[in-house]
Each structure stands twice: as C-alpha cells, then as structure tokens.
Amino acid sequence: MEPGTAMVRIGELSRRLGVSADVLRAWERRYQLLDPRRSGGGYRLYSTADEQRVRAMQAHLAAGLSAAEAAQATLGETPRRLSSPGPLGRSAAGEALGQALGEALESFDGPLAETILDRLLTEFTPETVLRDVLLPYLHDLGERWERGEITVAQEHFATNLIRSRLTAFGRGWGRGRGPRALLACAPGELHDLPLLAFAVALYRGGWRVGYLGAATPVAELLRTAIATPPRLIAVSAVDPARFAGVEPELRELASVAPLAIGGRGGTEALARATGARLLTGDPVTEAERLSHPDA
After folding, report:
1. CATH for 88-169?
2. In this structure, are strands 277-278 and 259-262 parallel, antiparallel, or unpaired?
3. Which part of the chain is CATH 3.40.50.280?
4. What does DSSP assign to residue 89?
C-alpha cells in the first residue's frame, strides 16, 4: 500500500460506489477483487486501489460481461493511476472518451453515455473527470444551445444525465466529522451543475455538505446558516443579475460564516461590498484550494 493511501470501512466504500456492502463482500470472497487491511481495532479497511478495482468491475459489467468475466478482466489489467499526471483532455484516450460522451448524450443514448462515464471514472479520479471533461463539455453545450446549434431536448437530456451521476456522489455527504459547507445558487439561478461539481469536490476533500441547490432565496439560506452555522457558505450564479438587490443579505451571511461567491456572476465589486471571497477558478480547483489551503 502506498504511503498516504486513504483507508475506509466497507460502508463508506459502498456509499461512494453505489454498490451494496453485501455485493462487495461477495466480490471479495468469490473473486478476491478487494484486498482489505485490518485496523488496530480489527476493522477491515479498504484502499483507493480497492475502489479503483470496483469501478473497473462496474465498467466491465456495464459493457455486458458476466460477474466472473468482469472480475477476471479487472484483475488482469495493468494497475492504473487514480489521477492522471496531467489534464485528461490532453491524452488521446481522454479526448476520445470525452468526444464519445458528448456524441452519446446528444444522440439520447443514455446506456452508452453511462458506460463511457463508467470508463472515465475507472481511468481517472472524479475530480479529473469533472475538471477536464464534464465542466468544459457543459460550458460548450450551453454556448451551442444559445447559438441554436443543439435543441432544448438535447441540452436537457445531457444535463439531467450528468446531474444524476453527480448527485450519486452526494449520498450521505452531510455525515462525517469534517468542516461543514452550506451551498446554494443565488435567487432565480437555475444552472446548478457547477455548484454541484463544487460540492462533489469539497465532499471528496473531506467536507460535509449541505446542498440547497438552484434558485435559493437568500433569506432561506440565512435562516439555515443561523440555525446550524457552517464553516463555509458558498453562493453561485452564472449571471451577475442574480445577485442584484441581495447585497445586504449577503453581508449578513458573511457575518454568520465565511462567505464565498462563485460562478461567472460573481464580481470583485460584489465580493468587496459583501466581505466575501471571490472564487475565480473552476469549481474543482477552488474546492481543492479550500480543502488543502497549504498545498
């Protein structure tokens, strides 16, 4: 096991992967797919390498292999890095998979899109897939929709499928012992996928997440923050107009907990006026900076 490898119990591994603990135990027993270690207290602990093998198993199952065949294929593969040494999009395989994903989504081929996402998440970390494939694709998708190059149906199908995958990462993300973040889109803001990506990256960085989602009235966000003060409040918008008229409430939010403003709708002037931190990078990078401020 490499130094610093994260170790989790089977319940956490099950939650991360969407595979029941009973199935994970069966794969461990029948195929030796998992290689747990024992803690000092006797608990079985699973590594990032175990997580990677299960993701590979899921991808092979999605491609139509039987469980035995999928396990054999997984165990016979050369171990891969969980994160790419550089941006995924710069690799030929990553670029091809990203292009194939877009084609599948815009052809309404949900099963193929899911299979490609499984492959991407087997080859690369969720952070890498978010930053180098999904967020750039969503940005491009929105621009093409505005130019009339794709239909409303194509845009809705693609974003809803991606949203469902990101939401799956959030099961139980309010539990744990890490710092708590309270996240919401500004009033009237319906584009919540960048904020959802931010939430996923924060959660994987050790935060507990309270996710309020799209078009959240600031008064409701303020009441929630006062009731259970978080370590961070983040408000997102893609349109600066969404922040118009709510500066007083944002200043009040900043008095409850550190406030961050993200998305293309955030401005330096708004940050200065409200005492907020302006998040200028992509959602994943900003989440990593908050999770590892000394890195």
Report:
1. 1.10.1240.10
2. parallel
3. 180-291
4. G
Please give the C-alpha separations between residue 231 and each of 95, 134, 281, in angstroms, as whole numbers: 37, 28, 20
Look up residue 100 and give its amino acid. Answer: A
Fold of 10-76: Multidrug-efflux Transporter Regulator; Chain: A; Domain 2 (1.10.1660)
Contact call for residues 144 and 152 (beta carbons, < 8 A) = no
Instruction: Specify the CATH number for 180-291; select among 3.10.450.50, 3.30.70.860, 3.90.180.10, 3.40.50.280.
Output: 3.40.50.280
H/E segment holding residue 203: helix 193-204
Type of residue found at 240: P
> For the whole model, what pTM was predicted?
0.71
Gap between the Cα atoms of 210 and 205, Å rounded: 15
CA–CA distance, 68 with 224 (Å, rounded to integer): 48
Q: What is the pLDDT of residue 87?
A: 53
Burial 190-217 (b: 16+ CB within 10 A, else e): ebbbbbbbbbbbbbbbebbbbbbebbbe
State the residue for tokens 């490499």: 2
Say how far apart CA 88 and CA 126 lie, in whole Å: 11
Give the strand pairing for 208-213 and 180-185: parallel
Reported as a single tens digit per residue, the pLDDT across 173-196 is: 888 788 999 999 999 999 999 999
64 pLDDT more than 80: no
Q: Return all residues near 282 (Cβ < 8 A) that are at least 6 apart.
A: 131, 135
Which residues lie below 8 Å from residue 73, measured CB to CB, with a gap of 6+?
56, 60, 65
